[in-house]
Specification:
Shape: elongated
Radius of gyration: 25 Å
Distance between the termini: 72 Å
Number of strands: 8
Helix content: 10-25%
């Protein structure tokens, strides 16, 4: 990915440049089947040349569509990816160099973006999920299964005991 490559000879010691970047998830090899990127990943990267290495700082953003972990409905959310990377010695640079002159951040940003994707995404904080009996989405509809749970569930008697205990303590 050309936008994510920085020539180490581009700037002098102690100088910095800022570059606007825009790329797709497929351009950097970001393949996460559950997630759809709805727009390009875009942002800015600041490149600073230090006496002992290089420093990169920036932020990227995009909109993604992801399934809720409770109700399985797809929903859109904003993905914000702040990052900073300090490459100090030749060992840090060895894996990122192209032709010995260019630092390639593609793999670093790919991993950073993947880590910022929510691991337990919810469409809303109060998502009610799916009915355990019939599987309907409880956010958009009600089902008769919920009223029958206290009588048909093995835990129905426990709920009745808790309710009777609560009423005894209130008296």
């Amino acid at each position: 990915m050309k936008d994510l490559r920085f020539s180490k000879n581009l700037i002098g010691l102690g100088e910095s440049i800022t570059r606007s970047v825009q790329f797709s998830d497929t351009e950097i090899g970001l393949d996460i089947p559950e997630i759809e990127f709805l727009q390009f990943i875009e942002g800015e990267i600041r490149f600073l040349r230090l006496s002992e290495g290089f420093y990169f700082k920036g932020s990227l953003q995009s909109n993604i569509e992801i399934p809720c972990r409770r109700c399985l409905a797809l929903y859109e959310t904003k993905l914000h990816v702040p990052f900073s990377l300090d490459l100090i010695d030749n060992m840090d640079l060895a894996d990122r160099m192209v032709d010995g002159e260019v630092v390639d951040l593609t793999e670093d940003l790919k991993q950073t973006i993947a880590l910022e994707i929510p691991c337990w995404p919810l469409c809303q904080d109060a998502c009610q999920g799916l009915c355990v009996s019939c599987g309907c989405n409880l956010n958009s509809q009600t089902c008769s299964c919920q009223s029958n749970l206290t009588t048909s569930s093995p835990f129905g008697n426990l709920e009745n005991m808790l309710q009777s205990t609560d009423s005894n303590t209130n008296n």
